[in-house]
User: Which sequence fits this backbone?
């Protein structure tokens, strides 16, 4: 097999020759800045796993979006939804892990798409995948920052009777959190990579403490309520209600691709990244499933939870029967969310930086730079934080429209996963693109299964996560994800017309048998 780099951006690939059975495992080189200086590889395997889990933070995702699932179809939707979604995203993780073991770069799925796609359509398909993934990360950053702001606002809401929360209060807290975490990413994170490990152990400790305490202290709901309670309050038929309610379990794995985009900064990425993807999925399922069961057994007043803006807080007060303990748990959750925002900002900036390195975004000349002293992509961090700031302004105009962003982030993310999976199937998992000597290898039958599962998962989520959550549809019950998707498509098109269409060149390998 003869291999040839056909892109002018040769810095993505190693200079040394590879033998006929290697497809640039040794060949995906250190990502470089515009000055040619390599990024320092200083993220250990443990830090990579910690970062990946800090982003997904499955049990916290369940806690913050608890009301969506149980209002759609009761506890049944949450418990069994987690099982179904975990199977689907295990397929995604295995698909990405196999590709990352061959092509470990910060571009992740859009680099996979660029390499796997037919030459004639490579630029267009990889650009669509790259801009989609970049949007998903910025929207995810906005959504998690809002969750943290709502947690912080919950304290005065509970303890000060005269306090009435206003949208602008949450907006100001949101912007403050965005700014503070940005400063940490700019000035401290590269010199304190152990930050992710602290967040990892904090979230596991909080998960264990909260779950055990709630199970020990709560007046247990009946097992039939937990395992058989299918309450359809949506107006849709049962099947549609169940599928639309899966957005909460799916949020457990939002940001699953985080490890991909730090590949240029970790040691032995062809081995470390696949391990991080799989470990994140396993830990995410265990923590998310156990937490969901523990919380469902602690429910004593279902209606209170549905009508509360942050239902996990009254649920903890119900289950533990101690306001102070519930507040301490909420403080710990806020800390966990801050670590999550920190990891998401870091990873989102690397996604933007990677796309800028391939000249896929306007102002790529600046966004692709690594600061020589801070050793981070300063302009990419600032640009992402600015977009998060602007997106936050939507919250002032419409809380409902802003809430559509979390669903949009999931849709965009899974779409970006499906593109390389579909191209792998198109290539029939040829040994030309998946060499036998790769660091992570699935049996052929399992490889086809997880690739198909990834594509099917994307189709289901793209369709049903655009549905309004309830019928009849009104201005307050509308799902604005379609509008957000339309807006992102227009912006992506404009970016292509004025810049990327003339300059974008993703990595390319031509395989000749």
Assistant:
């Amino acid at each position: 097999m003869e291999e040839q780099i056909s892109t002018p951006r040769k810095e993505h690939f190693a200079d040394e020759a590879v033998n006929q059975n290697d497809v640039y495992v040794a060949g995906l080189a250190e990502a470089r800045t515009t000055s040619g200086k390599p990024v320092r590889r200083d993220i250990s395997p443990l830090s990579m796993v910690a970062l990946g889990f800090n982003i997904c933070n499955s049990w916290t995702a369940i806690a913050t979006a608890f009301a969506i699932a149980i209002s759609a179809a009761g506890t049944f939707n949450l418990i069994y939804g987690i099982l179904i979604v975990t199977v689907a995203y295990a397929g995604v993780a295995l698909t990405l892990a196999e590709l990352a073991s061959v092509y470990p770069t910060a571009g992740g799925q859009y680099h996979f798409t660029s390499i796997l796609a037919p030459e004639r359509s490579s630029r267009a398909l990889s650009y669509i995948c790259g801009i989609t993934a970049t949007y998903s990360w910025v929207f995810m950053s906005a959504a998690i920052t809002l969750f943290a702001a709502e947690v912080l606002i919950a304290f005065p809401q509970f303890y000060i009777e005269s306090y009435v929360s206003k949208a602008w209060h949450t907006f100001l807290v949101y912007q403050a959190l965005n700014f503070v975490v940005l400063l940490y990413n700019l000035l401290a994170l590269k010199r304190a990579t152990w930050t992710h490990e602290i967040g990892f152990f904090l979230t596991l400790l909080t998960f264990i403490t909260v779950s055990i305490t709630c199970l020990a202290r709560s007046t247990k709901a009946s097992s039939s309520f937990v395992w058989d309670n299918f309450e359809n309050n949506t107006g849709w038929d049962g099947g549609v209600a169940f599928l639309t309610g899966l957005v909460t379990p799916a949020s457990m794995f939002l940001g699953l691709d985080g490890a991909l985009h730090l590949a240029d900064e970790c040691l032995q990425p062809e081995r470390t990244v696949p391990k991080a993807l799989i470990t994140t999925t396993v830990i995410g399922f265990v923590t998310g499933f156990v937490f969901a069961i523990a919380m469902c057994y602690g429910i004593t007043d279902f209606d209170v939870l549905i009508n509360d803006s942050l239902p996990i807080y009254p649920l903890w007060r119900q289950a533990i029967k101690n306001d102070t303990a519930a507040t301490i748990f909420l403080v710990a959750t806020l800390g966990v969310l801050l670590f999550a925002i920190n990891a998401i900002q870091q990873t989102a900036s690397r996604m933007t930086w990677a796309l800028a390195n391939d000249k896929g975004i306007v102002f790529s000349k600046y966004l692709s730079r690594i600061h020589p002293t801070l050793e981070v992509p300063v302009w990419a961090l600032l640009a992402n934080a600015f977009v998060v700031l602007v997106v936050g302004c939507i919250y002032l105009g419409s809380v409902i429209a802003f809430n559509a962003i979390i669903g949009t982030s999931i849709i965009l993310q899974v779409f970006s996963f499906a593109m390389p999976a579909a191209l792998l199937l198109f290539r029939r998992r040829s040994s030309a693109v998946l060499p036998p000597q790769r660091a992570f290898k699935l049996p052929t039958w399992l490889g086809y299964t997880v690739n198909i599962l990834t594509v099917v998962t994307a189709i289901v989520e793209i369709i049903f996560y655009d549905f309004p959550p309830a019928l009849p549809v009104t201005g307050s019950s509308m799902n604005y994800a379609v509008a957000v998707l339309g807006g992102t498509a227009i912006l992506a098109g404009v970016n292509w017309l004025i810049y990327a269409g003339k300059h974008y060149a993703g990595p390319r390998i031509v395989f000749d048998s």
Notes: The chain has 19 helices and two strands. The CA atoms of residues 380 and 448 lie 36 Å apart. The chain has one domain: 2-36+44-512. The longest strand covers residues 2-5.
